[in-house]
Amino acid sequence: MSVPLVLVAASGLAREVLAALAHDGCGFEVRGLLDDAPNLQGTTVGGFPVLGTLDVAAAHLDARFLVCAGKGSSRASIVERLTRLGVAQDGYATFVHPRASVPGTCRIGCGSVILAGTVLTTDVNVGRHVVAMPNVTLTHDDSVADFATLCAGVSLGGSVRVGRAAYLGMNSSVREHTTVGFDAVLGMGAALVADLPDGQTWVGVPARPRQSTPVTGTTYDTTSMGSLS
């Protein structure tokens, strides 16, 4: 029997999940979406109705929820709000695309989204409400904390630690035994070879702290950031 599913945040990520579910329902039956945007009320997104604002969640507690905001801190805020509306910790779905590779030695927390082409090799631990965009590679003993976002093409060496709500831009890479801090940002295409501290933004090859005014002679591009939306 299919499990009713409500997507929260009518984002590009939500439409990607809906497109995947159209080919393989993965045991879910989509009921619709919730979003606070006034212009979305009464419309459809990806062929499914916007059921109302987040406050309507209390009327759908028989369903599972999947928070599809692209930025981890936004997902965390939404989950806090849904908790106040009565959504339990086990009231969230986990979506793993049929073309993702997740062996039995790996763990994925509730509420996470793993899109097509993503590969977890062995003994990888992915937390709650994590998003892995297409073609992410997580190798042995990696750990990705709650609400982290891994954009398309991200590649982690072995034993990498990614902190809560960190954001890794498209095609960025992280050397083995390296840590990405809490709420840190690694820019698009960056190569991280040293620990990235909490709350900092690093860019370039090799990755360095982002500066508002470029220093003459530096080889990294302070504009090489992926969208956080």
Automatic annotation (TrEMBL):
<feature type="binding site">
    <location>
        <position position="70"/>
    </location>
    <ligand>
        <name>substrate</name>
    </ligand>
</feature>
<protein>
    <submittedName>
        <fullName>Sugar O-acyltransferase, sialic acid O-acetyltransferase NeuD family</fullName>
    </submittedName>
</protein>
<dbReference type="InterPro" id="IPR020019">
    <property type="entry name" value="AcTrfase_PglD-like"/>
</dbReference>
<feature type="domain" description="PglD N-terminal">
    <location>
        <begin position="5"/>
        <end position="82"/>
    </location>
</feature>
<feature type="region of interest" description="Disordered">
    <location>
        <begin position="204"/>
        <end position="229"/>
    </location>
</feature>
<dbReference type="Pfam" id="PF17836">
    <property type="entry name" value="PglD_N"/>
</dbReference>
<keyword id="KW-0012">Acyltransferase</keyword>
<feature type="active site" description="Proton acceptor">
    <location>
        <position position="140"/>
    </location>
</feature>
<dbReference type="InterPro" id="IPR050179">
    <property type="entry name" value="Trans_hexapeptide_repeat"/>
</dbReference>
<dbReference type="GO" id="GO:0016746">
    <property type="term" value="F:acyltransferase activity"/>
</dbReference>
<feature type="compositionally biased region" description="Polar residues">
    <location>
        <begin position="210"/>
        <end position="229"/>
    </location>
</feature>
<feature type="site" description="Increases basicity of active site His">
    <location>
        <position position="141"/>
    </location>
</feature>
<dbReference type="InterPro" id="IPR041561">
    <property type="entry name" value="PglD_N"/>
</dbReference>
<keyword id="KW-0808">Transferase</keyword>
<dbReference type="InterPro" id="IPR011004">
    <property type="entry name" value="Trimer_LpxA-like_sf"/>
</dbReference>
